[in-house]
Amino acid sequence: MKFLDLNKKRHAFKNFTDKAVDPKDLRTAIEIATLAPSANNIQPWKFVLVKAKKDALAETLPDANRRQLDQAPYVIALFSDTDLTQRSRKIARIGVKDLTNDQLEYFMTVLPSRYAKFSETVKGEYLALNSGLVAMNLVLALTDQGLASNIILGFDKSVVNDILDIDKRFRPELLFTVGYSDDLLEPSYRLPVDNVIEER
To answer: Is the distance from CB of 88 to CB of 47 less than 8 angstroms?
Structure first.
């Protein structure tokens, strides 16, 4: 599928049918999503497929969004790894056979030294940027798999780790409702491209 066509097919679907979703399709979409760029190639994301605990997760949302979670066969919870030093060293450990010595040094020494200087504000912005990059890749990958999805930001992040039994080191970022939909949605309005480009 051409990239333009894929983007035109992606919509924020809020109604889902009861058709089951194959977890293999979700895994494929996530694998594609993780090809997204990330600052310093840190790949700080963690994905949690939520099915059994959807009801508890729905309690963290305003009423307007709960129906989506009730209908969607799956919810994907996106987390960011807040321990950037450990994340960097994990990449080195897992990729040790594939990385050059310079790359190993980068992940083992250079990046941890850089991250040690991050303020909480800088780290938060850094994680948010990387979450945005992988989130867009994920919804496009889900669309390419023939799945409907919607991104949900408004939920009580303070309780999600406890509900899903996820280490507090991981920061909840976004929820994605995923399934199949019979809705035929019109494209959302976009500003003409000449209104968002300037040349100097």
So the answer is: no
